[in-house]
Amino acid sequence: MPHSSSYWVDTAGTAPPDDGPLKGDIEVDVAIIGAGYTGLSCALHLAREHGIRAVVLEANQVAWGCSGRNGSFARISGGRVPLAQLISRYGENTAKQYFAEMTAGLNTVRGLIREGRIDCDAQPDGVYKVASNAKHVESLKREVGLYHDVLGYGAQLVSGDQVQAVHRGAESFGALYMPDGFSMHPLKLAWGVHRLAREAGATVHVGSPVVDWTSANGSHRLVTPGGVVTARKVVVATNGYTSTALNRATAGRVLPVHSQIIVTRPLSAEEKRQTLPGSECMFDTRHLLSYYRRLPDDRILFGGRSAITGREAESPKHRQNLQDALSRKFPMLEGIQVDYNWGGWVAVSESSLPFVCKVPELENVFAGGGYAGSGVSFSLQVGKRLAQMVTGDPHPTEVDFLHQCPKRFPFQPFLRMGQRMAYAWYRFKDAS
Ligand SMILES: Cc1cc2nc3c(=O)[nH]c(=O)nc-3n(C[C@H](O)[C@H](O)[C@H](O)COP(=O)(O)OP(=O)(O)OC[C@H]3O[C@@H](n4cnc5c(N)ncnc54)[C@H](O)[C@@H]3O)c2cc1C
């Protein structure tokens, strides 16, 4: 399928060359399924650091999934577990190790952009978690305390008055400020990593969905419409787009959750002054949070969770919900023309944390994903870690939970019903 239409597709320019659909049968050492950030970064690091020229099989186009459609925030983040909960679940030491790995992820992105000369409109650093309700300021204060006391990180609490310098309008009662984290053009970033991977020796076949997979005698037979790949090792980088039919061993380990984005017309100088004068990354403290920023051409990108099922994803009510949320924050933008609207499926694991693991039941198969909508920097880091696992390091980070393959979701048929009830409860809590 072609890329679905979006602001990113319209402004990315021309895609770098790829290797077209697979034609004929081949034998390879390593095959990677999925050409998003995870798969491309794995291919790049395999070639550059381990001398392995992997073959990437992509069903659609390079970065057709989340990597070409996201909100563009590269932060110290991965998964969606609040810091206090992370500490109580795994202890301070693991929380510190995980924070170090997430920070390494952000540095991996910076390094790729710098060393690979990826022209992806990277913006200056600065991330604000904005209190959308006065009652949330206390919990931001506690969170800043944890960043300082447990992680030794310089997050700052910004008062309601101070935050007005970067976030005007309503629903800004204070903020937690992280000095590290920036936005960029996510499709240009993906295309840049793709170019680097191919320059390093990887092959990337687009239009090559893996439609059948059998394993025997230590090798894997991946069937695509144009040919069969026989591989000794396989990396699964399909994340929120993993079909249950791909392989029994990978099925049901992530829940695809829809996230949606609108992009407005360019703001006037006055609208800009009265809403988002700067280019920092913003997200709020709601349970069903919104994320937003001003783009270099002065439009506002505004995103949040939307539909529960694929059938509902096209409904105009989700676009309207985002527009309503935008005008609640910035009343002067009520009714503003929306020029772009698209969505994608983020992958949530049972623990709401990412994984980079060996897949149980299968020999020499590795998988990475589960970033829960926070994977721009961490997926590139996971790709790098997957390359280490493929080449024989079973535990390339100090963080144990990352290397455990996610449990399957229990009670699969009732999952969407549970999600619907959770969203209704979150909406009630966010409104109160
Ligand atoms: C609307 C939206 C906003 C987001 N905003 C942010 C943000 O601001 N910051 C942040 O950190 N994260 C954000 N994310 C999440 C982030 O984009 C993802 O975590 C990241 O891109 C995941 O990359 P990936 O390579 O693992 O998966 P993907 O980019 O989804 O790639 C998976 C690929 O696998 C391919 N595939 C699937 N099945 C097969 C098969 N059988 N054969 C071959 N190929 C197959 C798909 O076509 C797809 O291209 C957002 C996501 C969405 C959807």
From TrEMBL:
Cited InterPro entries: FAD-dep_OxRdtase, FAD/NAD-bd_sf
Protein name: FAD-dependent oxidoreductase
Gene Ontology molecular function terms on file: oxidoreductase activity
GO cellular component, one term: cytoplasm
Keyword Oxidoreductase among record annotations: yes
One Pfam family hit: DAO
Stretches for region Disordered: 1-21
UniProt entry keywords in alphabetical sequence: Oxidoreductase
All copies of domain FAD dependent oxidoreductase, residue ranges: 29-389
